[in-house]
Design brief:
The protein has 234 residues and is an alpha/beta fold. The chain has nine helices and six strands. It starts with a helix and ends with a helix.
Length: 234
């Protein structure tokens, strides 16, 4: 179903975002499993259950993403989000094990499985830490998230301090949309932001949504050029 939805979004003129709540290897798949704790070092020790489970997970997800690659669907790929928090298994062991996990996934997906349709999004928490930076060769966009109100100027500056200005700075999850007038006045130029679902959307001030989405400096899907047409010409 995820691939079907992603393809529909692409055909409608957008670039789909896919995030993966990676359950701790051997603990099952899903949000609750992603908060469980394992010894990450064992994922890199051959002949352990964790090593076998990790590679089975990576192969399964790569198989799904291969379908999208073959259909020429690009993906904003968001694995292991909120990486430098201590609530998901991949962040509990500190920056070094996370970097090793990230690079392992990247090398397998990109170099071995040839998934050249992925746009890699490195997702910090609301308090980004440089130790969780895998190196600029391993991601395309970087950002943070928080569910607090406002334009999150401090978060924007923290992400920029770690990653510089050579990659787009993104607000990959938010509870309220940042006000574009204030953003541009203070040069808090989020390349994109993603409002979280369910209550965060249904309880949002509708006027603030209309103001943000209709602002002249905010691009929405209907205003984008038909990227698919460019691909047909190339």
């Amino acid at each position: 179903r995820e691939n079907e939805l992603a393809t529909e979004w692409w055909k409608a003129g957008g670039i789909p975002t896919i995030m993966w709540h990676w359950g701790a290897p051997g603990k099952g798949e899903g949000y609750e499993q992603s908060k469980m704790e394992i010894d990450i070092e064992r994922c890199f020790q051959k002949e352990t259950a964790e090593h076998t489970a990790m590679w089975a997970d990576l192969k399964r997800i790569a198989d799904h993403l291969t379908v999208l690659r073959d259909a020429k669907v690009p993906v904003l790929w968001r694995p292991m989000h909120e990486c430098d928090g201590n609530w998901f298994w991949y962040g509990k062991g500190g920056g070094e094990p996370f970097v090793r996990l990230w690079r392992t996934m990247f090398d397998y997906f990109v170099r071995e499985r040839k998934l050249n349709n992925l746009i890699w999004v490195l997702c910090h928490t609301g308090n980004p830490k440089p130790e969780w930076n895998p190196g600029k060769a391993y991601y395309d966009l970087a950002g943070g998230d928080t569910y607090g109100k406002g334009i999150q100027e401090s978060l924007f500056n923290k992400v920029r301090a770690i990653h510089g200005t050579t990659v787009p700075t993104i607000y990959h999850e938010c509870g309220t949309v940042p006000d574009p007038v204030e953003c541009f006045a203070k040069k808090v130029t989020w390349s994109w932001w993603m409002l979280w679902h369910t209550g965060h959307l249904s309880d949002h001030d509708p006027e603030a949504l209309r103001r943000a989405y209709n602002h002249d400096l905010v691009l929405t899907r209907d205003e984008l050029p038909r990227i698919m047409d460019y691909l047909k010409k190339s």
